[in-house]
Write a structure and sequence with these properties.
The protein is an alpha/beta fold and about 400 residues long. It folds into 2 domains: about 140 residues, Alpha-Beta Complex (Aspartate Aminotransferase, domain 1), CATH 3.90.1150.10; about 240 residues, Aspartate Aminotransferase, domain 2 (3-Layer(aba) Sandwich). It is built from 13 helices and 17 strands. It has a 7-stranded mixed beta sheet, sandwiched between helices. Strands 1-2-3-15 form a 4-stranded mixed beta sheet. Helix 3 runs antiparallel to helix 10, helix 4 runs parallel beside helix 10 and helix 11 packs parallel to helix 13. It binds pyridoxal-5'-phosphate (PLP). Pyridoxal-5'-phosphate (PLP) binds next to helix 5.
Length: about 400
């Protein structure tokens, strides 16, 4: 009998929605992952900014196992303790608000879009347009793919929902020029991730906040990738001295267990019974995982650690000969002048280092928050060897 490999089976049975790299991971420990041949890799991608505490963290695994033995799911017809407790913790860490739980970043952003539309109906004579930025990424549902400013993801699926206007990032005047009586909200990532890690310039978010206040618009911040310590603050907007009206979270929240959240300040808290919902959203299993993630981040001081390690990582990738290095905390990227990012990613993989080519030019690094200085040294050494 011929041995059937996982990639062959995957080609046969999985929809081909993305190109997978030729490796099959079977287990992980901290910042290390292992393939089916037993090779060890240093993981600087963390499931695309998801595994904040690395792989197989004992406390997350323990919390999941305990909750699984107690109560996995009840639906949202009833209260559950982990859900209420998680909402309380998120609000205490961020700004006065209430929380809707879902299962992904796209769903969290869908909730934010629906909030903005309902708010516009109530408060701005039916205004419903949301200003977002070119190059942004907000998810893959029809509304969020349209909100995102990357036509390659939305064009094949026309007709798209109307009501989204795209302007260049980091330019407040463009937002001002795009604002009209139809506008209801501005929706931004504090650091654009998927396009190759583009941080908001100093003053940009504060300027947008002021403009939204002046004009009576909602400010929605998509912190799906930047939230929960990733940038060296609990939430990236805290670097800018502002708070949004609506904030979305997902990715790292469950430490790898799917969960998303949409937080709305009292002004934007317009959902009423029947307006929105999710069968799985915020179920006890996902919320217990998320609570354990928050507990460990807090107890182990991982937000400050991420800031410190982020500076080290930034310095390490400066030596890679790129034309630009960008980032905030443990969300960093190097952009090469030549289209060599995919080849670099593949060569790193062969050298047992996991990095993420977001396009032909840029490599993104979003390692677990628990990464150590020694591991960053090891990654730097491997990347220099690869470049030789
Ligand atoms: C900023 C941002 N928003 C939303 C999403 C969508 O999240 P999900 O894939 O969980 O739907 C992503 C995913 O990469 C993201 O980076």
């Amino acid at each position: 009998m011929p041995v059937v490999t996982t990639p062959e089976l995957a080609d046969r049975y999985l929809m081909q929605v993305g190109r997978r790299l030729p490796v099959t991971f079977v287990r992980g420990q901290g910042c290390l992952v292992y393939d089916d041949a037993g090779n060890e890799y240093l993981d600087l991608v963390a499931g695309i900014a998801v595994n904040l505490l690395g792989h197989a963290h004992p406390e997350v695994a323990g919390a999941i196992a305990n909750q699984a033995k107690t109560l996995i799911h009840t639906s949202n017809l009833y209260f559950t303790q982990p859900q209420v407790e998680l909402a309380r913790r998120l609000v205490e860490l961020s700004f006065p608000s209430r929380v809707f739980f879902c299962n992904s970043g796209a769903e969290a952003n869908e909730a934010a879009i629906k909030i903005a539309r309902k708010w516009g109906t109530r408060n701005r004579a039916g205004a419903h347009e949301i200003i977002t930025t070119l190059g942004s990424f907000h998810g893959r549902t029809l509304a969020t793919v349209t909100a995102g400013g990357q036509p390659k993801y939305s064009d094949p699926f026309k007709p798209l929902p109307e009501g989204f206007v795209h302007v260049p990032y980091n330019d407040l005047d463009e937002i001002k020029a795009a604002t009209s009586a139809r506008t209801v909200a501005v929706m931004l990532e504090p650091v654009m991730g998927e396009i190759g890690v583009v941080p908001a310039k100093p003053g940009y978010l504060a300027g947008v906040r002021r403009w939204c206040d002046d004009q009576g618009l909602l400010l929605i911040l998509d912190e799906v990738q930047t939230g929960l310590g990733r940038t060296g603050r609990w939430f990236a907007h805290q670097h800018h001295g502002i708070t949004p009206d609506v904030m979305t979270l997902a990715k790292g929240l469950g430490g790898g267990v799917p969960i998303g959240a949409c937080l709305a300040a009292p002004k934007a808290d317009v959902f009423e019974p029947g307006d929105h919902g999710s069968t799985f959203g915020g179920n006890p299993l996902a919320c217990a995982a998320a609570l354990s993630v928050l507990n460990v981040i807090e107890r182990d001081g991982l937000v400050g650690h991420a800031a410190e390690m982020g500076e080290m990582l930034n310095a390490a990738i400066h030596g890679l000969g790129g034309k630009e290095v960008r980032g905030l905390g443990l969300m960093q990227a190097v952009e090469f002048a030549e289209p060599r990012a995919k080849a670099f990613q593949q060569a790193c993989l062969e050298a047992r280092l996991v990095v993420n080519a977001v396009d032909d030019h840029s490599i993104r690094f979003v390692p677990p928050l628990i990464i150590t200085a020694e591991q960053i040294d090891r990654a730097q050494h491997t990347m220099h060897e690869v470049l030789k």
